Amino acid sequence: MNPSPYPVLTVLTFWPLAASLLLAFCRKESQVRIVTLIASLIEVVLAYPLLAFQSKEGFQFLEHIPWAPDWGLNYTMGVDGISIFMVWLSIFTLPLCVLCSWTYIGKRVKEFHVCLLLMTMACVGVFAALDLVLFYFFWEALLIPMYLMIAIWGGDEKRYASLKFFIYTLAGSTVLLVAIVALRVVGGTFSIPELMQMDFSFRFQYWVFLAFFLAFAIKVPMFPFHTWLPAAHVQAPSAGSVILAAVLLKMGTYGFLRFSLPMTPAASEYFAPLMIAISLASILYGGLVALGQTDIKKLIAYSSVAHMGFVTLGIFVFSVQGVQGAIFQMLNHGIITGALFMMIGAIYERSHSRDIGKNMGLGKFLPFFMFFWGLFGFASFGFPGTNGFIGEFLVLAAAFKFKTLVGIIAVPGALLAAAYILKVTLKMAWGEPPSPEGKGWLDLKKKEWVYLVGPAILVIYLGLAPSGFLNVITPTVSATLTSFESRKSNALPAPKAPEGTTLIFTEEGGVTSAGGEKNG
Amino acid sequence: MAKDLNFNFSYIWPETVFFILVLYLFVATMLSRKYPKMATFAGLWPIPALGIVATILAGSSFHLNEAMFFNSYRIDGLSQFFKVLISLGFVLAAINSFSQPTLAKSRKVEYFLYLTLSAWGLVILSSANELVTIYLALELSSYSLYILIPVRAHSKEAAEAGLKYILFGAAATAIALYGLSWIVAAQETTYINALASLSWTVADKPLAVMGLTLFLGGMFFKLALFPFHFWCPDVYQGASNETAAFVATLPKLGAIIVLIRLATLLKPNLEITAILAVLAAVSVTYGNLCALVQKDLKRMLGFSSVAHAGYILVGLVAGTAEGLAAAAFYAMAYLFMNLLAFWVIGRISQDGRNLTYDDLNGLAERSPVLALCLAAAAFSLVSLPPTVGFIGKLWLITSLWGHGHDWLVIVVCVNSAIAIYYYLSLVRHAYTEDPFKNVAKPKASKKPLETASAVASAAASAVVTTAEGEVPEGPVKVIDLTDTSAYSYIGALFLGLLVFLLGVFPSPVYSLVLAAAKGLLP
């Protein structure tokens, strides 16, 4: 079952925690940076056994330890085709973040790196947890370092942005906790794999889906809940933005795939039109707003809203192609947007501004910088040959197959992406430089080469040879969808609803069919 | 259950140890007039020492399940669990009070005498299994507090707080006694075991339900549950930081254990359970909303404890063994996280002032350990993982779900989103605000460290002048008197570790409490 010589997921989760304790002994700032970089590289090396992941359905690298047996809490870890690449993404983001904050972060360096390491721990934990409470543990634990990162090292409006981020996401998670408790009482277990196999009454699914929806839609973020994202992205330091874009947003869509579809199939089917409508709204709205931005970082932040709209669209058309495209797009967005945010951090260190107007004409002075910017920008709007194309294409194809109208509405979103990326790239490359001081800026430094080449290779490799990746995820995706198709009409018939209150839906024949005394 | 005296010293060792400590302090009070040394550590070391002994003795007798004094006094897992908590909390609260700046030296030994008396009353209360015994133990612990609260040098607010506490306390006691008389009249017994087998519906025994409601009112006063909470923020604000730390934590435990014992009377679907559910919901929401707008940290914690009283009630509304166990577990969480918050406040306010949020500015740079511990307390209070507050609340709401009050679970969870704002403010001020934002900097050219020491010394002299009755000049807001000695770290780290470790490894404690709660219910 577990082909690795050590419990690889546990080690990957808690090694950053151990490393953050090590940092307590570092005195100099440069020491802190080097130690964190080494720790992050060790993390990558430690992930080596994960390469043995087999492309088949079901969870692998399972670990299981009773945690609080009286309450049915277990420490269960495992990955499947949906989560394996998210774990990889979290692990590879860490060294890039250390590198891109090497000169960007100048104050309270030690605390910053502790936050980075703790965030990596929580990210890996969220994707590897197979127990609802364990999942929630990491899900919430992530908020604290992220909050501190924005609130301490953020820009001018850091207080507003960090508070908004925290309250929005926490408000979403509170109902998630209610859903977890309800699933525990009705389903009788916290175990995610077991709950994925259970059939609940439609009424129960209805409410659980809505609770999940609120938590995940805020995290993704989907259209009406997205307002925290631009604020957080713009104010966060570049490493914070990178983690936010590359990993945090994926947690929402991962939640839809892992929880909503398998646990509440009937409700997912029921709400699919709404979800698709919101996804389309996110795509178009995000694209339109991005078009009007003058702040580069805000532009990329709104483009995230649009890109994540493609992901949710892919999920809720319920076809293998669509979900494949969604997962691919999750990975793409992590690589591309992460890289773009690192580049914005790099240019901010030179111009001390994120305004497009203050960063024009770079093609002349920073040719290599603009090369990478162009590459990631093109990948971002799905230029053929880059990985963005594959993901977007799969989702669009699935959308057309689902309903032509949905596809037709989504296509302008893809065009909008090209419009805003080309607009900003054009100005940055060939615009009139606002001041002569730009001439003194240096092109890419060594460490910038290091952290940009990796994502660049991935962009092209995944764009040209996506089949290796798709082969790994396909068995899980098909299994998930097969199970979804077979169980979506399986919802247990709901007995007559108790009168009086609308919120009592637990006793209505969960798996335990507790019957229970109805308190109308 | 034995219906005889069944007296055995080995059952009541913790109580005895506390009694010895009370006697010792009584003598020490007399001696301290002649030997001022009694008011230093040389005379006071038995307090933590015997407190720890009591903790160990209570902890080593979990296996007991005995009824004494004709079943009015029970030694069982639950009582021993609470005795451990009370003894441990007493030790920490006493150590916290050792360096109390607003306590005159001549009153010091006396102060600890009353502190110990109050804790002793609570220890007895943990085992009380009969309404009159409960009442007596409760008063034993309350009377001492009436004296403790006004003991704060040069503070009219403390006198006001003391008066408020006495008046509210007396009224609550009167109500409880009145209710007790109705219960006796209707049910003709005061033994909880006997009462548990009787009917408690309005249709059968209207008088008894009325009486129980009134009696519970007396407990809710102790717990500061809405609408009996009015004293809470005022008393916290008026009492010295260290006294508030005690008042905020230990007497609440006493109320909780009584409520847990009385909860065995509350079968599901009783009218009174519905009342409790409504009170819990209102208390949680009202407490959190009021805490949002507070500036004084202790007032904020006062309203937060109103909200926490509501959380604890959630477990009682469930009424199952799991629910009672969850309430007991959450009581432990409440004790540790509040003591931790008060500990940090006491250490920051070395001159004994009340703190506002601004006084926390830059704490992370002045004292990283205290800042980290404050953050742990704040996140535990708002029930974020990985802290004991999260696990506690998770168990509370899991135990309630499916018992007809699911709406209460949703209210409780959504309240986290309200509460986060003011708890996060603690963290925000400690970590993100500039420590000298409100202070006139001596010279811009100086390095930060020199500035810090300059401001600190300036502030210290300002305090001295204030003490002499003069108004200090300049807008000195942040007074960096934060205690960074080993003493300040010991308590903070100990409690911080408890809050964290119990949040990650709750299983052993939880099994213990669950077994105890199962023994309580038939």
Q: How would you portray this structure in words?
A:
The complex is a heterodimer of chains A (520) and B (522). With 520 residues, chain A is mostly helical. Helices cover 69% and strands 3% of the residues of chain A. Chain A has a two-stranded antiparallel sheet with strand order 1-2. The longest helix of chain A has 32 residues, at 320-351. The N and C termini of chain A lie far apart (48 Å). Chain B has 522 residues and is an all-alpha fold. Chain B has a domain at 283-438 and 477-522. Chain B has helices spanning 13-34, 41-44, 46-59, 77-97, 108-127, 131-148, 156-187, 192-196, 206-223, 231-238, 241-262, 271-292, 297-318, 321-348, 363-366, 368-381, 388-400, 406-432, 448-467, 486-504, 507-520; strands at residues 66-68, 73-75. In chain B, strand 1 (66-68) and strand 2 (73-75) form a beta hairpin. In chain B, helix 3 (46-59) runs antiparallel to helix 4 (77-97), helix 13 runs parallel beside helix 17 and helix 14 packs across helix 21 (507-520). The longest helix of chain B has 32 residues, at 156-187. Chain B starts with 12 loop residues before the first helix and ends with a helix. The model of chain B is unreliable at 439-479 (pLDDT under 50).
